[in-house]
Amino acid sequence: MSLSPTSSGAADRTEAPPARSLAVTLGRLSLPNPLMVASGTFGYGKEMTDFVPVGQLGAVVPKTITPLPRRGNHPWRTVETSGGLLNSIGLDNDGVEAFLDKQLPWLAACGAPVVVSIAGGTVEEFVGLAARLEGVPGIAALELNISCPNVSHGVDLASDPEMCRRVVAGVREATNLPVLAKLSPNVTSIVAIARAAADGGADAVTLVNTCLGVVVDWRRRRTMLGNGMGGLSGPAIKPIALRCVYQVRQAVDVPIVGVGGIASLDDVMEFLVTGASAVQIGTASFTDPTVAGRLLEQLPSALAEAGVSAVRDLVGTLKVPGAAAAAAPPPR
Ligand SMILES: Cc1cc2nc3c(=O)[nH]c(=O)nc-3n(C[C@H](O)[C@H](O)[C@H](O)COP(=O)(O)O)c2cc1C
How remote is the CA of residue 282 from the centroid of ligand 1, in Å? Predict the structure, then answer.
């Protein structure tokens, strides 16, 4: 804590709580705090400010945009399931030009850094989108959605390390903006894909998109979702997302944004200690649209409880009891 020259001394020093630094950096991207809202789960319009102090969030990630408008998948597109939500929206969006025209003006003025989520069907389409957004005011970074399970070939670029490296490197070359690569948990080795993203020049990896699932109505002999399969999100996937953060943190030197089932301050803290420098709140905003604001308000008290004065001092401080025991000399 720094005292102003007009401070009256000892009394002030004992009464004022120590300042907690919430700021985090993800490669070249600096955020005022680690609490972001996840793509596809948060609106962009005045209605959001009724629920959340949007301008105070670490960042807003709007719904993924594609080069051209997409109608999305056949309904039903969402269904609740045990501990989560299965969705098959299919990247329904109005395309990049409509985004720049209608949505970006509000976002750019909302006060929070705006991380624009983009998706293409090919490396070239990703690169084209990045080039189109280059130099547009009001954009803090790009998040590459190479992990949408609800469009055909949506996870191809996040399933093959070389393809992942190529798309990230291509975008990296086309833009000066920081680049986040959003990865899929539906792969054999998340470490191999994260390493490829880092090799391609990603400033950070976002872990994770939804987990593939199916919900069935056996009486009618049909899947609940119009598209058959969908992406599972919410509390059910938190351990999977944490596992991805855990594995990548240990193996790859790249900042991590954790996302998957975060709904409480304990969830946020679990992701931070496991190795995420920032987190995104997704499905939880559907059941409680005020959640992101509340967690932001509560974060300093959890830092105090953890005995740290800065979020960055907490990141990756997790211990694995078995690992410590294995490293200790054997008992005599
Ligand atoms: C209805 C819905 C739509 C989503 N749309 C997108 C999207 O457009 N782009 C994207 O990268 N992720 C999208 N996601 C995935 C979320 O951003 C997030 O990665 C995932 O839901 C896991 O976090 P959660 O459990 O906190 O929701 C969507 C999720 C849901 C539930």
Answer: 6
Upstream peptide bond of 218 is cis (omega within 30 degrees of 0): no
b/e map 15-27, b = 16+ CB within 10 Å:
eeeeebebebebb
In the residue annotation, 211 being an active-site residue is answered as no
Q: What lines the ligand 1 site, CB under 6 Å?
A: 38-41, 63-64, 78, 85, 87, 89, 91, 117, 145, 148, 182, 209-210, 233-234, 237, 259-262, 282-284
Rounded to whole angstroms, the Cα distance separating 117 from 104 reads 12
Among protein residues, the one with the nearest Cα to ligand 1's atom 28 is 40
Which amino acid appears at position 17 of this protein?
P
Q: What is the pLDDT of residue 325?
A: 79
Distance 251 CA to ligand 1 centre (A): 25
What SS3 class is residue 329? coil
pLDDT, block means (10 residues), the chain with 332 residues: 38 60 97 98 86 96 97 96 95 97 96 97 96 98 90 82 96 98 96 98 98 97 97 98 98 98 98 98 96 97 96 96 82 72
Nearest-atom number in ligand 1 for the CA of 286 is 31
What is the pTM for the complete model shown?
0.94
